[in-house]
Design a protein that fits this description.
The protein has helices spanning about 15-20, 50-55, 75-90, 100-105, 120-130, 145-150, 175-180, 225-230, 245-265, 275-290; strands at about 5-10, 25-30, 60-65, 90-95, 110-115, 135, 155-165, 200, 205-210, 220, 235-240, 295, 320-330, 335-340, 345, 350-355, 360-365, 370, 375, 380, 385-390, 400-405. About 25% of the residues lie in helices and about 25% in strands.
Length: about 400
């Protein structure tokens, strides 16, 4: 049995480093311009060579998304993106528009068919294979049993999303944001107005607020509790959604799936495997609930997610990050970060995240702080403090408190 590739999202340099440091086998990212997460920070075309070198030096593959709707005026720009992908050695492009597929294959690039193609049967997979597709990212509406049948009846690699946002529209083909705000979800600029609270008004003027259930906002997908079923189905790649999410999300989710997949392959023949694996998955699930989620469901894998709607606006994460300061300097010989506190206060035993484009993400408990050569327990707004850190950080890195949501609600 082949260990599936674990692919993580990279919407920024900080997220890219978090994904690599957390054990991703591959990352997927977009170039600024047309892609399905155009509101993420993304990467410039000039940065792509550096991205590929960084990842390949760590034995991590790089996939570039060119997966939004393509208009006539996009053709030249897409061609430029694809030529750069070929030049710098990108491992594959993720796309679905025939113009992009044609251009990519002409250049000799590997092509992964985006979930935007809504492929949900083997005949469609085999059709795209004739166009040169190397891998297909199946529609998220496929059940596990349907996926098994597709794998049995095709010879194309199959990739599925295992974690992250689900859309109330079929494979994300939504027009609500376009109708209300002129921001097309299919061009990567969805404003996610489906996640708001709505008021229904009848012809007589009576109002009904739909606040108990956000009926357009689906819960997030989470396949971790039954990840062994996906492994045994011989799915080639497990994909994590989240190019608009923060580095802490990328870190926690990638680490969780990395640990689960590795544990399965290292221990699946043990006599007490099922007991140990369930215990591990329960522990990992607790960590997943700390980061952004709208509630977690099995998606379409095991049954149709009827009534799997969020019941709050935004995230239900157990923890939130609150920016409190910035790294002004790093004293490498002492392992000390000089931090300016801009908001609130920082105390011994607080848990913090330090996030930056080169650092990625560092998380730790505050164990030691000094001001003017003396140990202190509390640092207030406007003060400069020497903070003992457990890894290298850089000037300009942001410092966040990582606190329980209940303490601020």
């Amino acid at each position: 049995m082949i260990k599936p590739e674990l692919m993580a999202p990279a919407g920024s340099w900080a997220c890219l480093r978090a994904a690599v440091d957390s054990g991703a086998d591959a990352v997927y990212l977009g170039i600024r311009g047309p892609n399905m997460r155009n509101k993420a920070e993304n990467f410039s075309l000039g940065e792509l060579k550096k991205v590929v070198k960084f990842c390949h030096d760590k034995n991590v593959k790089v996939y570039v998304t060119v997966n939004s709707i393509v208009y006539e005026w996009d053709l030249k720009n897409n061609e430029k993106i694809l030529e750069k992908c070929k030049e710098v050695g990108v491992d594959a492009v993720i796309c679905w528009d025939v113009s992009v597929i044609k251009q990519a294959k002409k250049l000799g690039l590997n092509v992964h068919l985006s979930t935007q193609a809504s492929v949900s049967n083997s005949e469609a997979v085999n059709f795209y294979k004739q166009l040169g597709i190397d891998r297909v990212v199946l529609a998220r509406e496929c059940s596990l049993e349907q996926i098994k049948e597709i794998i049995k009846n095709t010879k194309v690699e199959v990739e599925v999303f295992v974690h992250g946002a689900m859309c109330m529209a079929i494979s994300g083909r939504c027009f609500l944001s376009q109708f209300t705000d002129g921001s097309s979800a299919n061009r990567g600029v969805c404003i996610q107005n489906c996640r708001r609270e709505y008021t229904v008004i009848d012809d007589a003027g009576n109002k009904l607020k739909l606040g108990n259930d956000y009926i357009l906002s689906a819960e997030d997908l989470c396949a971790l509790p039954f990840i062994e079923k996906l492994i045994e189905a011989k799915i080639i790649c497990f994909k994590i959604e989240g190019r608009n999410k923060g580095a802490e999300y990328v870190k926690k989710v990638t680490e969780a799936y990395r640990k689960a997949v590795d544990f399965y392959f290292s221990n699946k023949d043990d006599k007490d495997f099922n007991i140990k694996f369930k215990k591990l998955k329960d522990e990992l699930m607790a960590g997943l609930k700390d980061v952004y989620n709208r509630g977690l469901s099995t998606g379409f894998f095991l049954n149709k997610p009827i009534n799997a709607w969020n019941n709050v606006h935004g995230s239900k994460s157990n923890k939130v990050k609150r920016e409190i300061g910035r790294v002004e300097n790093y004293l490498s010989k002492k392992g000390v970060a000089i931090v300016k506190i801009f908001s609130g206060e920082l105390k011994i035993e607080d848990y913090i995240l330090i996030i930056g484009n080169t650092t990625g993400i560092l998380e730790q408990e505050v164990e030691s702080m000094e001001m003017n050569g003396k140990r202190v327990d509390v640092v207030k707004q406007g003060q400069l403090v020497g903070l003992k850190v457990n890894g290298k950080v850089r000037e300009g890195d942001k410092v966040f408190l990582w606190i329980d949501r209940i303490t601020i609600d």
